[in-house]
Amino acid sequence: MSPAVVAVLAYLPSPDRGVWMIGPIPIRAYALCIIAGIVVAVWWGERRFVARGGQEGTVTDIAVFAVPFGLVGGRLYHVMTDWQTYFGPGGDPLGALRIWEGGLGIWGAIALGAVGALIGCRRRGVPLGFFADAVAPGIVVAQAIGRLGNWFNQELYGAPTTLPWGLEIYDRVDPATGLPDALGGVAVDHTAVQVVHPTFLYELLWNLLVAGLVVWADRRFRLGHGRAFAVYVAGYTAGRFWIEQMRTDHATRVFGDIRINVVVAALVFTAAVLYIALVRKPREVLEGPAAAPAAQAPDGAAAEPQDTESQHTEPGEERAGEGPDKEKDPAEAGDRTT
Q: How far apart are CA 111 and CA 127, in angstroms?
């Protein structure tokens, strides 16, 4: 990479290949990034879920349904919006199954992943909105981690640029045959063929900002009933709207010459903002088998549960007999590292 490249990329392995071999087994960087993102999302979602009063292990159980559904949905959306690549003239139908080569549409992943989450939530007795609010910031961080896979694959970048953080693109070849292989090949010549906008990096950084926004808004306004998740959706789609227009990769175009993901981002953003504006219910109190067991008093009797909703005060208000410090939201514990 250029010495002037952004520091976040400088500490990563050289982008001269997107796959490593352990004997006959290929280890693809794109897949590792996806797996790492899922692990982070489940771990953080679990912490936030427990901090909100849920039972430990519930998010992991629900993820068993949500993750496979999300991967299938993401791939279906990609194939449906780029079907000519696989089923058009000269297409490769089997390529639709090679998910490790890249191509996951976040819209399909969230839509079908929500179906899987709904199944898991019903099995565990958890409201879908409660679960969605807990996992929202983890999901967008997982997307940020997944974008690193685009760097290894040399894909989803923008137009040529002279900016110091421009991404250098190399010609990759199969070392066994010498034939071009953009995904699994190796860059034998480290002379860049072009320097381009790393739009995947712009989205990565934007996603991290959105995660911070969700955490802040959730603490500040005690969001519930899926509103924290809606903040994530609105924040992500706002960024995707302008970043998508910078990309130069092949994409299905609608309404003349507009990339389909630009249109989808605008529609989903509008829906998310309307949801945030119209849904005014207070944060849920989880009950039933999915709720954490009540704390035990010293004599073995169940302790009286605390009504955290009734204790909450509005900004600027004080409770009788207390100082000016605002009550801390118990759910904040799920966003702090140990």
A: 17
